[in-house]
Design brief:
The structure holds two protein chains of two kinds. By secondary structure, chain A is α+β, with helices and mostly antiparallel strands. Chain A has 21 helices and 27 strands. In chain A, the strands form seven sheets. Chain A has an eight-stranded mixed sheet with strand order 1-10-11-8-18-15-16-17. In chain A, strands 13-21-20-19-14 form a five-stranded mixed sheet. In chain A, a hairpin with a 2-residue loop joins strand 10 and strand 11. The N and C termini of chain A lie far apart (about 60 Å). Chain B folds into two domains: about 80 residues, Roll (Ubiquitin-like (UB roll)), CATH 3.10.20.30; about 60 residues, [2Fe-2S]-binding domain (DNA polymerase, domain 1, Orthogonal Bundle). In chain B, helix 3 packs across helix 6. Helix content of chain B is about 30%, strand content about 15%. Chain B is an alpha+beta fold. The chains are: A alpha+beta, B alpha+beta.
Chain lengths: ~725, ~160
């Protein structure tokens, strides 16, 4: 057996199914099917209402721990005005979505965009459904709709006092046309949205009941393990499977161009047999790539002439030439794994009727169905993707869909039998789509009064978009590589941002808050410049933010709650940082002490203006999660040798433990009028706030991570 | 045939004695609540109880379990949620939830040994990894289940636009 699981093909195909292109699907002749198999009438395509008043709200995005399953349901339920105790959810079927011409909008779950990009049509669906239910009740009573009102799932006719519950009129409401231009509630009147509702899937999660991708159990199911080329883009030259073939439970070896899979009757057996394979690899031209060669490539990029310009304001060379003082620094970051606790996994089953069913943990059901259909050579309508719970996502399970294609290619060799592919942790860590390594050189000019008059930034960074969404590149600029600099809110009159796109063979992807390394660079460097100017880091920043700028508001809020400038216990120091992104404005103050080169983070104050807050407690959970996730950057960092990632598991890619979790205080400052995200904004400031506090404590600047590359013992 | 006692039931499994308990539970007994995370006893997602002790089932050969009692998450809450699980619910601990079964098993074993654990006890016992970052709530929930102090959340909420939290 020889099937195509060449990594480059994954990459190309991954790009072809990336979020943006999904919009271009056109399903010729697809009938607008009514919800098949639904046992309750639809009142709008988002809501099912049972005769006993149970309300099922459909969720098109994925739940990966961020809580949007509950938040999105709150927005619908708020406008529907049902009894929250009656609400449950179901994921939209990607197959049904295709057949109904993408009626549920985007299924992509990333960019902290779940709530902010769907809130309007979700709230309108709720409001429309309420209007339809009231109208159905009024028709039944033969009274004007205007005399009826709805609250908590009950419709009341004012003059007569008659009452009916939603469940009793849902079937009639289903027959009505969906009204247009329904008014939406003012958020200050919210009763369900804006509250810390308990997350709907929690009772299952504490009982171990949710079905994650790895948990799928199907009749006669087989298990697959995969070994991919250790050097990215390498190829299989030959496989000696004599030992594996003889091992208990082994059903077959599937050889592809870029990897080999073993299929067995149990996951451990397939994994043991995979370890027993002797694979001869063609490493291609990348077998000598190392961390050093990549650093050299980035340094060459920083020195290159005529780079694409991401921002040009004023005349930076002239302003630097006449500056009273010039500050210059170079910063760098390593590649990072997502390291989701659930490794990549997908189960595929070619049925005898010619259809394909796939079960997977995905951040984008539509990208998964496209990937599966392409790998199977089937039309989308003949494929279904069952969205499992995600054991973490952080961007890894969105655009690439490499593991879905692999599972389909493997299962194709076992028609009629479901095959579950689970990557080993080692495969997962060494075959990621990594947070790009990068390097930035910044130069700032100060005038005689210590005001920053010019800033020049050059960034050498691999392009995520070039790999996963090439149509997103604009005039040589990948926005994820230059963010925070090209859109900096600081009013410095002369600003120049240049981008050296340098793409080693290491695959890169969207990692929580893509581009967050630039917040580390900018906010640490601004701290350096503030100290060079002899100014307080808070005052220095405030002087460069326009009155009314929302960045200013959150910076002031964080500073106030943290008590910026007030005395601290002996040995504890503060640092701050501010960044906007993913629709929200954020600032952070970290309190740290440094002992024998060890950094202890005691307290983090995080202020965020997301316009509105749909579930305050879920937002706090995201803030806590972002803080510790990003403190991991002090320990984690991939190194390359001989073209391959060196670290393979949690013993050498250390993620934080419980004792490293600081106290996190979340300051929600929703000023209204816009909708911002929460899943990623909290990630932006963690590293620079801590590094700036470390400087305050030790006089040492951390300009590259992980920490082992630095000596932060007190100077 | 290997004889096992899982969640109070006798089970016979026809597997190699070196097969880790994790895969016997998941693939042979179809008890999928216990999770695979690393396979090298680093992350704790596979934590179960063997004779009341928290063990990493991914490195526990099933052949070593003769005469011992294995309890998984499916057995833990068989008669309704335990106080640890209830505390987990009350404090909204899980995010993605994948590591939480192992966390709950480890916390339960800790409280069996030390009914009033200190923060240092928690640090020492709770070596489970969580990528989402639920650690602060894990600590709170353990203290709540133990009836020890739970620090009040000092999280202020400023709502200048009048929206109520």
């Amino acid at each position: 057996m020889n099937i195509a699981i060449d990594r480059r093909e994954f990459l190309k195909a991954g790009a072809a199914v990336g979020g943006g292109l999904a919009l271009e699907f056109s399903i010729a002749g697809a009938a607008l099917a009514q919800a098949q198999g639904a046992t309750a009438p639809e009142v709008t395509h988002w809501i099912l209402i049972y005769p006993d008043d149970r309300v099922v709200i459909r969720i098109a995005r994925s739940e990966m721990g961020q809580g949007s399953l509950t938040g999105l349901a709150q927005l619908v339920a708020e406008e529907l005005d049902c009894d929250w105790a009656n609400v449950s959810t179901e994921f939209v079927s990607p197959n049904e979505h295709i057949k109904r011409k993408r009626i549920w909008g985007s299924m992509s779950t990333g960019g902290s965009a779940g709530v902010r990009t769907s809130q309007e049509y979700l709230r309108k669906s709720g409001a429309s459904a309420r209007t339809m239910l009231v109208s159905a009740a009024a028709t039944q009573w033969e009274v004007p709709s205007a005399e009826c009102s709805a609250s908590a799932g009950v419709i009341t006719h004012g003059p007569s006092g008659r009452k009916v519950t939603y469940g009793k009129v849902a079937a009639a409401a289903n027959k009505l046309e969906t009204p247009k231009d329904v008014p939406l509630r003012d958020p200050k009147d919210w009763k369900i949205a804006g509250k810390s509702m308990k997350r709907l899937e929690m009772p299952d999660k504490v009982a171990g009941k949710p079905i994650y991708g790895v948990d799928v159990q199907l009749p006669n199911m087989l298990h697959a393990s995969i070994v991919q080329s250790p050097v990215f883009l390498g190829k299989v030259k030959g496989v000696d499977s004599k030992a594996a073939d003889k091992m208990r439970g082994v059903k077959g070896i599937v050889k592809g161009d870029g990897g080999v899979a073993v299929v067995a009757d149990n996951c451990w057996r397939s994994n043991q047999a995979a370890k027993a394979l002797k694979i001869d690899w063609d490493e291609g031209s990348n077998g000598a790539v190392s961390s050093d060669t990549i650093t050299a490539l980035f340094k060459e990029g920083l020195d290159a002439k005529d780079l694409p310009t991401a921002r040009k304001t004023g005349d930076v060379p002239a302003a630097l030439a006449t500056a009273a003082k010039v500050v210059e620094a170079e910063y760098a970051s390593p590649y990072l794994s997502h390291a989701t606790m659930e490794p990549m996994t997908s189960t595929a089953w070619f049925k005898q009727d010619g259809t394909l069913d796939v079960w997977t943990s995905t951040q984008n059901g539509e990208a998964s169905i496209a990937a599966a259909a392409e790998a199977a050579g089937l039309p989308l309508e003949q494929v279904e993707v069952h969205k499992a719970m995600l054991g973490g996502g952080f961007g890894r399970r969105g655009a690439p869909q490499d593991y879905v294609k692999q599972s389909v290619a493997i299962a194709k060799q076992f028609p009629g039998r479901p095959v579950k592919l689970i990557w080993s942790r080692e495969e997962d860590m060494q075959h990621g789509f990594y947070r790009p390594a990068s390097r930035a050189r910044m130069k700032a000019g100060l005038d005689a009064q210590g005001n920053m008059v010019a800033m020049h930034t050059v960034i050498a960074c691999p392009s995520i978009l070039a790999l996963l969404r090439p149509e997103g590149i604009d005039k040589g600029i990948d926005s994820t590589a230059v963010r925070t600099f090209n859109d900096s809110p600081y009013t410095t009159p002369n600003q120049l941002v240049e981008y050296a796109m340098r793409n080693p063979h290491v695959p890169v992807g969207f990692w929580r808050a893509p581009g967050l390394q630039n917040s580390f660079y900018r906010e640490s460097f601004i701290d350096e410049v503030a100290h060079a100017a002899g100014k307080d880091p808070l005052e220095f920043r405030l002087a460069m933010l326009k009155p009314g700028d929302k960045n200013r508001l959150v910076l002031e809020a964080a500073a106030r709650v943290a008590g910026w400038g007030s005395p601290l216990p002996a040995g504890v120091y503060r640092g701050l940082a501010q960044s906007d992104g993913f629709g929200s404005y954020t600032a952070m103050v970290a309190e740290v002490s440094v002992n024998e080169g060890r950094i202890n983070v005691h307290r983090v104050v995080f202020a965020i203006d997301s316009g509105y807050v749909v579930n305050p407690d879920a937002c706090r959970a995201q803030a806590e999660g972002n803080v510790i996730f990003c403190l991991g950057q002090f320990y984690e960092g991939h190194t390359l040798k001989d073209g391959r990632i060196q670290e393979s598991n949690f013993h050498d890619f250390r993620i934080p433990h419980i004792q490293e979790m600081p106290r996190v205080e979340t300051v929600l400052v929703p000023t209204g009028g816009f909708w911002g995200g929460h899943g990623e904004p909290g990630a932006l400031n963690v590293v620079p706030a801590v590094c700036n506090a470390v400087f305050a404590a030790t006089g040492k600047r951390i300009r590259s991570l992980p920490l082992k590359d630095n000596d932060v013992r007190n100077a | 045939m290997i004889k096992l006692n899982v969640n109070g039931r006798a089970q016979n499994v026809d597997v190699e004695p070196e097969m880790p308990l994790l895969w016997v539970l998941r693939d042979e007994l179809k008890l999928a609540g216990t999770k695979y995370g690393c396979g090298i006893a680093q992350c704790g997602a596979c934590t179960v109880h063997v004779d009341g002790q928290a063990v990493r089932s991914c490195v526990t050969p099933v052949g070593s379990l003769a005469g011992k009692k294995v309890v998984t998450i499916e057995g833990l809450g068989a008669r309704g949620l335990t106080r640890v699980q209830q505390a987990w619910l009350e404090h909204e601990v899980p995010q993605c939830g994948y590591c939480q079964v192992g966390m709950i098993m480890a916390a339960t074993a800790l409280l069996e040994k030390k009914s009033k654990p200190t923060d240092a006890d928690i640090d020492a016992a709770m070596t489970n990894l969580c990528r989402c970052g639920t650690y602060a709530r894990v600590r709170k929930a353990i203290h709540a289940a133990a009836g020890t102090q739970v620090a009040a959340s000092p999280e202020p909420v400023l709502l200048p636009n009048g929206q109520k939290a």
